[in-house]
Amino acid sequence: VVLESDLRAAVESEQFVLHYQPQIDLHTGKIVGAEALMRWQHPTRGLLLPGQFLQLAEESGLIIAMNTWALREACVQAVAWGQEGLSLRVGVNLTSLQFRKQDICQLIRQTLDDTGLPASGLELELTEGVLMQNAESAATKILELRGLGVRFAIDDFGTGYSSLSYLKSFPVHRLKIDRSFIRNLETSPGDAAIVRAITNLGHDLGLDVTAEGVETKEQLKTIRLEGCDEVQGFYFARPMPDDQLREFVRCWP
Ligand code: G
Ligand code: G
Ligand code: MN
Ligand code: NA
C-alpha cells in the first residue's frame, strides 16, 4: 500500500510523469490528440499507475496539487508538439474535488495563458460522477470554459448512475464510450447495441464519440461500422512517455 506521507513527498519532489495515449480520427486516419495519464515514479517501487494512488490522492486532497501540475505539464507538452509541427489536442482528466473548486476556471485560464496553449488544444475529461456531484455549478463552469474554446469530454460514458437527461444540461463536445462496452464486443450483441445507441445518441446531440479500450482488429471493425468518430486503445498504442509519443506520431502512416 501507498502511504499518504509518501504521496505528499512525491508532490513536493515532483515524482510524477505523464504518459500519453494517441487518439485516432477514424474519418481521416490521423492522430488528432493524446490523453495525458499520470504515473508516479516511486523512488523504490518503480512506476505506479493511478489505480495505486489516485484514491488516496483524492481522499487526502493531494489530487489538487497533482492535477494542477498535470494540467500545466500537459499544456506545456502540447505547445512543444505544436512547435515541432505535430498538431495534437491534449486530454486531461479532472476529478471531482478539483472540478468542485471555485477557482477551477481561473486555474485553467491561467494555465493556458502561462503556457500559450490555444484553448482549443485542451480537452478536459470529466466522468458522469464528477458532473453529477457538481450538477448546479458544473454547467456554469463548462459554459465559461467553453466560451474560451476549451473542449469537454464525458469520460467512461455509460457506466454512471445518472439519468440521460443531464446530457442536455452539460454542453460537452464528446462522449467517450467506456471500455467495458468494448471488451466483449465480438461476442456480445448487447454490448454492440450499447455502442450503437451511445454513438447515435451522441451524434443526434451533435457530439463526437470516442471508443476507448479498443484492443483488437474486430473491435475496431465494429466501432467503425457503428460510426464512432475517434478511437483510443492498446490495438494502436499504450500510453507512452512524451518522447515516444512524438516518435509514434512521426512514424504514423
Ligand atoms: O492509465 P490508466 O491506468 O492509466 O489510468 C487509470 C485512471 O486514472 C483513469 O480513469 C484516468 O482517468 C485516471 N487518471 C489518469 N491520469 C490522471 C490525472 O492526471 N488526473 C486525474 N484526475 N485522473 C487521472
Ligand atoms: O478512465 P480513463 O479513460 O481516463 O483511463 C484510461 C485508462 O484506460 C488508462 O488506464 C489506460 O491505460 C487504459 N487503457 C487505454 N486503452 C486501453 C485498452 O485498449 N485496454 C485496456 N485494458 N485499457 C486501456
Ligand atoms: Mn480519461
Ligand atoms: Na475512460
* CATH level 1 name: Alpha Beta
Give the overall average pLDDT.
Answer: 95
> Could you describe the largest sheet, including whether it forms a barrel?
8 strands, mixed, barrel
Kindly provide the radius of gyration, computed on alpha-carbon positions and rounded to a whole number of angstroms.
Answer: 18 Å
- In the residues, how many domains can be counted? 1
What do these coordinates show?
This is Diguanylate cyclase (GGDEF)-like protein/PAS domain S-box-containing protein. Residues 1-253 form the EAL domain. This protein is an alpha/beta fold and 253 residues long. It has a single domain (4-251), classed as TIM Barrel (Alpha-Beta Barrel), CATH 3.20.20. Helix content is 45%, strand content 22%. The protein has eleven helices and nine strands. Strands 1-2-4-5-6-7-8-9 form an eight-stranded mixed beta barrel, surrounded by four helices. Helix 3 packs parallel to helix 5 (104-115) and helix 5 packs parallel to helix 7. The mean pLDDT is 95. Sodium ion binds next to strand 6. The site of sodium ion (NA) has 5 residues, from strand 6.
